[in-house]
## 1
Amino acid sequence: MSAISVQLPHSLRTKITEVARQDGISVDQFIASAVAEKLSALMTADYLQKRAARSSQDAFEQALAKIPDVEPEDYDRL
């Protein structure tokens, strides 16, 4: 582990402390989790953008053509 010093507005620190206490975790755990969630979201968006750049309409249509043209089961209807 490594330490980092972050300046936060008092109101934000108060809310973090309150939520961490409600969740039964430390402020450090809460902040680490929040940072991990943000990184995950950013990395997912980056992955999806890169994946979309490799896609093609033709490959999409070929994949759709493999799906049978049948009515859905009753439990699977909208």
Note: Helices lie at 10-23, 27-53, 57-65.
## 2
Amino acid sequence: MATTPQWSSRFAFLMAAIGSAVGLGNLWRFPFQTGENGGSAFVFVYLLCVVFVAFPILMGELAVGRHKGLSAVGSTAQLAKDAGKSSVWGITGWVGVIGSFLILTTYSVIAGQVLAYSVMSFLGEFAGRAGGDAAAVAPLYGGPVHALGWHTLFMAITVMVVSRGLNDGIERVVTILMPMFFVMLAGMSVYAMMNGGAEETLAYLFSPRFEDVTPSVVLAALGQAFFSIGIGAALMLTYGSFLGPKENIANSSVIIAGSDTLVAIVAGLMIFPIVFTHGLDPAAGSGLIFGALPAVFAGMPYGSIIGGVFFFLAFIAALTSSISMLLVGAAVAQEQFGVKRGMAAIIIGAICWSVGAATVVVSGLGGWLDFVSGSIALPLGGLLVALLAGWVAPRTVMRGELPNAGEGMFRFWRVMIRYVSPIAVILILLLGLDAKFDFGLNDFIAG
């Protein structure tokens, strides 16, 4: 194993990994996906997809990353080479690096808006706008100049954290922000359930409605489970490279996947009571977060504080994810090109900022970047990881990286990573392409 920094504690690793997985998708994508796909039917299938598809690939990424202790590119290439296979398998890492880079370019723009909305709410900018669209008239965020300014601030924060390194930068941030995030999320959820449509929310999310489980619901849940945990983007390959040999990867994977799933469900308990009480559309997506909810907060008692806390929650989720995405590229630049980690973070951050800035002023560019990253790079990266861990890496190597997993669990993992997960990811990849180019697969499955 190459000499690399290591996590100073298991707590620091878990906070970083959970923070990487927990992102804006948990706070707004999961609720609106649930709203579009039958409520509890979607939640039920989503939980199954986490266990049988996302969890095995998560374990595989951490195991492959730790085995060589290199960057995402170095670990995948060297593992294949040691197994007597071509080092071209390093493309697995490169696909993840590209995916993370592309996601970060647009993610930073959205995260900047989230940060702006938190500040706006705390300052009372939404006050008196109940029933209106706060996003359209709030003076701190309107037009490309403000968007670029908040995008710049968010990216600067991300670069600053990553440039300080693993222990002095990332660990210090996540070990403070993630516990704060959990406390604030729990408090907001309790408040929403006590003051909103709790009964309707519980019935919507958890009452069995198996008759609503359709092929389209299954595929939507599959995609949400895959993307929510962040597999395929080389995030866990990179974080795994900093793990010590005694870390229980199987147990940690359960905690990471379970925490990410719990956050998504608790986010539903936070958002849906407000949605149902105020007659909002649960399937409104970003329009719900940046349009309807600010207007609702404006009309609530203590709405400025509640709205500020809500958007600050989203900011924490965005930041802990963004630092992992930037770290992926910085680690590769350091290893493959000899660039110092701090300078690598600055250079890659500057390029990400430039592309993100272009999406603000060039119509349609952000949509194409989202398509390439979400519908091509991430599924392809996940598929390659599954093939690498399940078929290329010798069984003895993977068993050596998962010594704490019981034989039954290891056999379950091997079956999932070799057969079930690849098939599921191929479906995600094909359906993502079909959604863009419409060759009829989605219509065929929908019946």
Note: The chain has a mean pLDDT of 90.
